[in-house]
Amino acid sequence: MARVAGVDIPNNKKVEIGLTYIYGVGRRTARKLIEETGIDSNKRVAELTEQEISSIRKLLEENYKVEGDLRKEIGLAIKRLMEINCYRGWRHKMGLPVRGQKTRSNARTRRGLAGKRGIKRK
């Protein structure tokens, strides 16, 4: 297994898909990384040489915020919203959807199970 940014990337995946296992790297960023390093996009992670892996690692460290740094930055941004008591911060505190979604019938992932909120089950 290749290890990039503290994450083990599975060997059986193509490089583009394998890089998305890193928090903060999606398909688009993975494609950019592959193009900039000059790696063949059809290669599997197991077929990468140590030099190719180190070039990906170096490019990620220099140009992108990933994993712990990105999580910390997002967490601090949410904490700041909650401290200044803006609407979005208040929604985060209450555990409700933040981006304008309706809560009357859906939003179960944010609000929790139906049984806990006083809705009777049959």
From TrEMBL:
What InterPro entries would the database entry show? Rbsml_uS13_C, Ribosomal_uS13, Ribosomal_uS13-like_H2TH, Ribosomal_uS13_bac-type, Ribosomal_uS13_CS
In residue numbers, the region (Disordered) covers 97-122
Q: Which GO terms describe its cellular component?
A: cytosol; small ribosomal subunit
Which GO terms fall under molecular function for this chain's record? Answer: rRNA binding; structural constituent of ribosome; tRNA binding
Q: Which keywords accompany this UniProt record?
A: Ribonucleoprotein, Ribosomal protein, RNA-binding, rRNA-binding, tRNA-binding
Q: Where is the composition biased (Basic residues)?
A: 101-122
The Gene Ontology biological process terms listed for this entry are: translation
- Keyword Ribosomal protein in annotation: yes
Highest taxon of source: Bacteria
Pfam families per the UniProt record, alphabetical: Ribosomal_S13
Assembly, in brief, is:
Part of the 30S ribosomal subunit. Forms a loose heterodimer with protein S19. Forms two bridges to the 50S subunit in the 70S ribosome.
Per the entry, what this protein does is:
Located at the top of the head of the 30S subunit, it contacts several helices of the 16S rRNA. In the 70S ribosome it contacts the 23S rRNA (bridge B1a) and protein L5 of the 50S subunit (bridge B1b), connecting the 2 subunits; these bridges are implicated in subunit movement. Contacts the tRNAs in the A and P-sites.
Q: Which family does it belong to?
A: Belongs to the universal ribosomal protein uS13 family.
Please give the name of this protein.
Small ribosomal subunit protein uS13
